[in-house]
Amino acid sequence: MCYSGSDKKLKLMAEKVLTRALRRACILGIENMKTLHFPVVFGLILAAPMVVFAQEAAPTEPLSSSDPVMTECIVEPAKDLRVSASEAGLLIKLDVEEGSRVEEDAELGHVDDQQAQMQKTAAKYGMAQAKKQAEDDIDVRYATKAHKVAEKEYELNQDLDRKRKGAVPFVELERLRLDAERAALAIEKAGNDRELAKFDYWTKRTEFEAAEKAIERRNILAPTKGEVVKLFRQQGEWVNPGDPILRLVRLDTLYVEGEIDVKKFEPSQILGCRVTVDVVAGGGRSEKAEGKIVWVNPVAVWRGGDDYYWKVRAEVTNELTDGNWKIHPGVQATMTIHLDTAEKVLLSDRVK
After folding, report:
1. What's the mean pLDDT when you consider all of the chain?
2. Are 108 and 222 within 8 A, CB to CB?
3. Please, what CATH class does the domain formed by 69-79+251-349 belong to?
């Protein structure tokens, strides 16, 4: 059922009047029940459905189709990072200062890595030694030849003892037989030693790679491109893992966050829509930027009473003009959402 504006006002007024009347009637009904005025009580019971009907018949507020304008939005950097050390040590080099602009993976500083360098060198020589042992077959070749000699000596003494019984003592024959078996086992052991040397090589190689990683972790790299806005440590100070060294913010892409009435808009109406952002910049000048809504919080925010809001976030592109950013984070902005301009928002499209 559709209602005009005047009908809607009349319905709302009727609902308020009937609600107040029912509240008053309930109080009177309790008093009349005490004096056994049952007709009055019965009349009140009949009146109750009328109030319920009036409440259910009141039309709900339709969703808005006009472009919403949000004031008091907050401009935030797309990334605001505390860059920290990964390893403990002396901060022997710091290549940036407040105001420095860096690219992603640029070296910001360096923690002392002398111990890691020595561990790398030791692992390098250990790896070379193990590789040489794994490739060396001298022990195998010597054991093979020694086995042939021991076996031949045992066979000759056996033949001599068969021709002349007792010519070779029994104990001597057993010793020669044991020497031949020992030589055969020496071949097997030499082969096993080569295999163990291969395992030792891979162990040393892992230690070498771990030392390289330890050296890499002592290089402090920029996780994203941005501008250094704060130094927490100075060159020559001791740092521990997790200690923040500097604050790095990304300013080429900004977030603008605001709140929009739950009763007027659905998240599906807003997500992906184009936006126009008006910002009061330095010196009282006004700047505009274009972007789109990249996120709508699915959990509504309650502000008291019947006031519920969706928290929305737009992503806008910032520009450098004569070495200065057009828009600065931390200021308030007014954001206009252009409905019916929604585009599909993918995680891959968001700033990384």
Report:
1. 83
2. yes
3. mainly beta
